[in-house]
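From the shared-data thread, chain only:
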Amino acid sequence: MTKTQNLINALNVNDECLLITSDINRAYFCGFADTDGYLAIFSDKAFMLTDSRFYEAAAQNVTTPDISVLKSQKPFEQINELLKSKNCREILLENDNVTLTQFNKLKEKFPDCTVKGSEELSREIKLLRAQKSETELQCIKKAQSIAETAFNEILSFIKPGIKEIEIAAELEYIMRRNGSEGTAFDTIALGGKNTSVPHGVPGEYEIQTGDFVLLDYGATYEGYKSDMTRTVAVGSITQKQSEVYEIVLKAQKAALSAIRPGVICKDIDKAARDIIKENGYGENFGHGLGHSAGLEIHEAPNFNTRDETILKPGHIMTVEPGIYIENTFGVRIEDMVYITSDNYLNLTKADKSLIIL
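Structure, as tokens:
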């Protein structure tokens, strides 16, 4: 069953039109990314409307049998014709992806239909996207393997005197050279005291002996993202640095041991957070334990103190505990895991023992 058919069945679509305006959601259903278009889904057929910049590539790459690709010259007129041919009187929009300006424009362009935002449509799309297919899994595994190639290569590049921004640029170059379509998100490469800022921006700081270097980055393959974090040391480090690293690693292992289908997401977060609290660093772990990833780097569900989603086979989650001591140093270790029918598969193979360069 195709992705559009799954959505149609989930919403029991009859005489409605599901009008998908989000670039990411169109890419999910069509298997092709454009930046300007519409996907009109009816009970028996779907139509991707895209302009001349993307039409030829879309016609070649959209192979889903129930989606027809149309060259979009006057999209609203074309959609109105489709609405009339399908005797459609109601258009449902993604509730969380349409601005008020867009909503008012669409109401104006489709005067013969009731146009309304649908929370149910948005929710069902999120649920479908959350459970990755085998094809999606393979794309994410490939992206992750590219990122790990970069990690293995960057270790010989990191040395005293190298700037954070140079490390970030080298990581991105290596990933590009090995098949990444681009970074999954803005690369984080931090050294010394800067590692205490969880999402710091690489700058001119030069790595020194005794520093931790925190690398948080990912590759993109066929539109799908990977995400990993490793913290390595340069030269000799203090006993406190070593102890904090081992606490973070212990917390991650506790979370991984708790992961399996049927477990509530917030309980996975708790497994890691309890370890960090017990060791006196509860106030130094301010973010959630992890998140899902796919076509976007942050997708639902999440590992945090609030998310009551039950883990299901097909979910892909990051597991990334951290301890950040202000103006001193920080440590984060992150893996990506795939939830299987009875356990999980760790997609991240890179060494997690404390590497001292």
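The chain has ten helices and 18 strands.
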